[in-house]
TrEMBL record:
Keyword Secreted: yes
Pfam families registered for this protein in UniProt: Glyco_hydro_25 (PF01183)
The protein's name in its UniProt record: Lysozyme
Enzyme class at the top of the EC tree: hydrolase
Organism: Heterodermia speciosa
GO cellular component assignments: extracellular region
NAD is among the record's keywords: no
Length: 237
């Protein structure tokens, strides 16, 4: 993700109603294009992104317990108007406050989930520290505990498990390649290249692959690992 900012698990099974018609061409595809953005993108042409084939966007909402993205509201409204499935993400600062505190801050500032069929569960962006020690000065055990504090708090408040965004390298180094979350939180894996590469942490595959740090209509390119109907099930719960 653009700092300060990304597999579908087998449990996606509930129905969904969505305002945009499901085109046969999109439904036949095994992947769905999306993207993620923050205030760095400014004005985004969401309708053109939709017309080009994008069907979802993940938008930065918060960071730590003090920062709210100034473009979140306008981005969220624009994505909704363009019929994109959308959700918020939180950039983790594990050294500054507890996972529960940051989850509650995220929930209070746009990171919640609703059963409207167009809202993705929130995403925890946990990755390389942009301004200090790679693992924020935490041991692998302490990092796993911090993530669990965030994830469990989010789930308790929404009934949904948040997405977890990371890289293979960071996850191995900073969590000891923990598999604790592989049965609950879908993985959003960042790797810029021709394939997702090694999947960390016991996840069988990635739900979303952040495959490039540029996208035609702004932000990073994201590829959902499934058909549009499965993406809609993820939004539904």
């Amino acid at each position: 993700m653009k700092l300060p900012l990304l597999s579908l698990l087998p449990f996606l099974s509930l129905p969904l109603t969505h305002t945009a018609p499901l085109s046969p061409e999109l439904e036949k595809r095994s992947t769905v294009q999306g993207f993620d953005i923050s205030h760095y993108q400014g004005t985004v042409d969401f309708k053109s992104a939709y017309n080009s084939g994008a069907r979802f966007v993940i938008i930065k909402a918060t960071e730590g317990t003090t920062y709210t993205d100034p473009s979140f509201s306008s981005h969220y409204t624009g994505a909704t108007s363009a019929s994109l499935i959308r959700g918020g993400y939180h950039f983790a600062r594990p050294s500054s406050s507890s996972g529960a505190s940051q989850a509650n801050f995220f929930l209070a500032h746009g990171g919640g989930w609703s059963a409207d069929g167009i809202t993705l569960p929130g995403m925890l962006d946990i990755e390389y520290n942009p301004s200090g020690a790679t693992c924020y000065g935490l041991s692998a055990a302490a990092m796993v505990s911090w993530i669990a504090d965030f994830v469990d708090t989010y789930h308790a408040k929404t009934g949904r498990w948040p997405l977890i965004y990371s890289t293979n390298g960071w996850w191995v180094e900073c969590t000891g390649n923990s598999a604790r979350f592989s049965g609950t939180s879908p993985l959003v894996l960042a790797r810029y290249g021709s394939s997702p590469g090694t999947i960390p942490g016991g996840w069988p595959y990635q739900t979303i692959w952040q495959n490039a740090d540029t996208y035609t209509y702004g932000g990073d390119s994201d590829i959902f690992n499934g058909a549009l109907s499965q993406l809609k099930k993820l939004a539904t719960g």
